[in-house]
Write a structure and sequence with these properties.
CATH class of chain B: Mainly Alpha
Number of helices of chain B: 23
Strand content of chain B: under 5%
Order of helices and strands of chain B: HHHHHHHHHHHHHHHHHHHHHHH
Largest sheet of chain A: none
Number of helices of chain A: 1
Number of strands of chain B: 0
Structural class of chain A: mainly alpha
Radius of gyration of chain A: 23 Å
Oligomer: heterodimer
Number of strands of chain A: 0
Order of helices and strands of chain A: H
Helix content of chain B: over 70%
Shape of chain A: rod-shaped
Strand content of chain A: under 5%
Number of domains of chain B: 1
């Protein structure tokens, strides 16, 4: 959106080259490892206050 | 300053991460990124993309999380309030107006696109989207569905099914937002984001196992599809192209929802000792996983397998999403299931984003005008409904939507992001900002990010912004050096311009004026509350 007027021609098509495999593996591998590491850290880290502020106290002002 | 009324907060760390990730993951992850990567030669594009992530995306994310939580501790939840707390000058709160105007205005058209996704999921599931092998049939269907052939078609004409879906998604958004931060947004995103990722993995497995679906066209197979997406071109030459850098930085920028006013609002509901460094990085990485790991592996390879290069070349976001991909899914085995799964995941991506666009407006109306939840939801519902009605009515060539997206969804976002990073590095100060960011942090931000945040990020952002203005506003041609204003400008100033484009800009101005007036009123409330607090402290 907003950029729809600047399309350019795509590059030519051919089967996966070694460069293609490398680009895909590094790109997808990097984001996968980063995401997995972050989620693992979040889920395994013990922070005592993590579970004690679960009470939502909304003053809806309807009184 | 405390208002004494706003005690909402996130109920879990994973919840706020899912909410921020949900805000970031949108249609751009699955439709815009793959098209850009393939278009610019994926090798060079990914280099520029990851550099932009490192020196633009991640630093601005951390800056936004920090600024939001910092101001939240002072009792402010809305963008004008947050800037009122950050910039100790009367002008501060008016700068913050952008953080309310941007998400609320984007919501007005984004909810319409969200309705398309839900509608397409329904039509796919019921088999109504099997329109044969001609992509033109799918283009006609989309044009009729969204009213792209004539103004007012979706409201007054015969083809008004989109309105049904629009009413459903509009109501759903406001029901969820009415339930509040924790019970509404957080609960929805904690279920919606895993569901989105699960659906994307199901579709991904289907695409990767397609092999060569049409033996008569052996070239159209999955390996060639992946090659079309990922094979690098001449990396050195491509990296010298400024438009590639603009595209890569722009994609990082818009994909992560930085500069929307959303992250500062969400993080203002955090507590002082809540971690923001790891949480911010996790939300960012979730967005990147969805974009590169899922979107990059599904959209372009799938389109290539069934339509070849000719079917993918030159398609914009909407062309790829609502004309090409319906045809692609209609050709797959179990087309109804996979088509519905695909468009429902797009709907989930859209609604988790649209919810985040409403919260800054709600927060402002509650905090600035002292409205309760029911009043603020009602008022924001009325404002956004009127704006959406304007966009839905002026649907010919989706002119109103496109114009507002350009000036608010791109231009103003650049402005706000620049302001945010300058405020973090230079107004709050890098040392204080650094200290604030690390309160309760689960991990340290590497030290090299200090100069990046203070110097490189603002410079890079300003350079990208200047390039964007040169290319997309003034229509600069780097080869000839000529300037030819783009359609977005000539629509407004040319005698042959578009009245709809002008009215759209008028709507934007109207919204800005509304928020400026209400911010002025809010400022008086905040000043008064601040004076009262100071008086109490003096007496004590």
């Amino acid at each position: 959106m907003g950029q729809g007027r600047q399309q350019q021609p795509f590059k030519g098509d051919k089967s996966m080259t070694a460069g293609g495999w490398f680009t895909m593996s590094v790109s997808v591998g990097f984001v996968l490892v980063l995401f997995s590491w972050c989620i693992w850290r979040v889920l395994t880290e013990k922070k005592p206050e993590d579970h004690i502020h679960g009470i939502e106290d909304i003053d809806k002002g309807e009184d | 300053m405390t208002t004494g009324k706003f005690r909402e907060c996130w109920s879990s760390r994973l919840g706020v991460i899912m909410a921020v990730a949900g805000s970031a993951v949108g249609l751009g992850n699955f439709l815009r990124f793959p098209g850009l990567a393939a278009q610019y030669g994926s090798g060079a594009f990914m280099i520029a993309y990851f550099i932009s992530l490192l020196i633009l995306g991640i630093p601005i994310c951390w800056a936004e999380w920090t600024l939001g939580r910092y101001a939240g501790q002072k009792g402010f939840r809305s963008s004008p309030g947050i800037f009122y707390a950050l910039i100790r000058h009367p002008v501060g709160k008016y700068i913050g107006v952008l953080g309310a105007v941007i998400p609320v205005t984007i919501y007005m058209y984004y909810v319409y696109i969200e309705a398309w996704c839900l509608g397409y999921a329904w039509f796919s599931a019921t088999g109504h989207l099997n329109l044969g092998n001609d992509v033109a049939a799918y283009g006609d269907f989309w044009a009729r569905f969204v009213g792209a052939t004539k103004d007012g078609l979706t409201i007054s004409g015969g083809s008004n099914q989109v309105v049904i879906f629009l009413v459903i998604v509009f109501a759903l958004n406001f029901i969820i937002i009415y339930r509040g931060i924790s019970k509404g947004i957080e609960t929805f995103c904690k279920w919606g984001m895993p569901a989105l990722i699960l659906l994307a993995i199901i579709v991904l497995v289907r695409v990767l196992t397609l092999g060569t679906p049409d033996p008569a066209k052996p070239d159209q197979n999955i390996l060639n599809g992946l090659g079309f997406m990922w094979n690098p071109g001449d990396i050195g030459t491509q990296l010298a192209n400024p438009q590639l850098w603009l595209a890569a930085a722009g994609q990082i920028f818009f994909s992560l929802s930085v500069g929307f006013g959303v992250i500062i609002t969400y993080s203002s509901y955090l507590r002082e000792k809540d971690d923001i460094v790891l949480s911010g990085l996790t939300a960012t990485s979730a967005n990147e996983f969805c974009e590169v790991g899922l979107g990059g592996m599904i959209t372009v390879p799938a389109a290539f397998i069934f339509l070849g290069a000719a079917g993918v070349v030159g398609q914009g976001t909407f062309g790829l999403g609502f004309k090409v991909l319906p045809l692609v899914f209609s050709k797959m085995p179990a087309s109804q299931f996979f088509g519905a799964a695909w468009f429902f995941l797009l709907f989930l991506a859209a609604i988790t984003s649209s919810l985040s666009m409403l919260q800054p407006g709600i927060a402002f109306l509650e905090e600035g005008l002292g409205l309760n939840r029911k009043q603020s939801v009602s008022l924001l519902g009325l404002i956004t409904a009127l704006g959406t009605l304007f966009i839905v009515y002026f649907s010919k060539d989706i002119k109103a939507l496109d114009t507002i997206d350009f000036w608010v969804g791109t231009f103003l976002i650049f402005v706000l992001a620049t302001v945010l990073i300058i405020v973090f590095g230079w107004v709050l100060g890098i040392e204080k900002g650094w200290e604030e960011a690390h309160k309760g942090a689960s991990m340290r931000i590497p030290g090299f990010f200090k100069p990046i945040i203070k110097y490189i990020c603002p410079l890079y952002l300003l350079t990208i912004f200047a390039l964007w203005v040169l290319f997309n506003v003034f229509g600069w041609n780097p080869k000839t050096g000529e300037f030819k204003p783009t359609g977005y400008v000539t629509d407004l100033i040319s005698s042959e311009g578009s009245s709809v484009a002008r009215m759209s800009v008028g709507l934007i101005v109207l919204i800005i004026v509304f928020f400026i007036i209400t911010t002025a009123a809010a400022g008086r409330r905040w000043d008064k509350a601040g004076n009262n607090n100071r008086s109490k402290e003096t007496k004590a």
